[in-house]
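REQUEST FORM: STRUCTURE PREDICTION
Request ID: SP-0412
Submitted by: Lab K.M.
Chain count: 1
Length (residues): 100
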Amino acid sequence: MIRPKDLVRLGLYRTEREAVEDGIRHLLLSHPEYRVEIAVDRYRREEVSLGKAARIAGLSLEEMKELLRDRGIPLLGPETLEEIRADAERARSALPSTKP
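STATUS: Completed
RESULT:
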């Protein structure tokens, strides 16, 4: 079995971490479905936002929403631009005034 330290010793990578990260990148290129599974799992665990999950999966926001709905995973937070704007306005109005 080839180990990351073998690749570092040969000068192909500077660190074992770099070798492992490159290996994972290549794995995900060969299996794009893994990106989707990672994105769904991280969204379900509330580790990432819907937008970030969509970027991880390589999907549009609407495709990600549909995928989550199809899997029975509830969408967290606002779904529409109007809801996002309303949430942003509520957040702005909750901030203390900085005017003297």
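NOTES: The CA atoms of residues 8 and 14 lie 6 Å apart.
Reviewed by: T.R.
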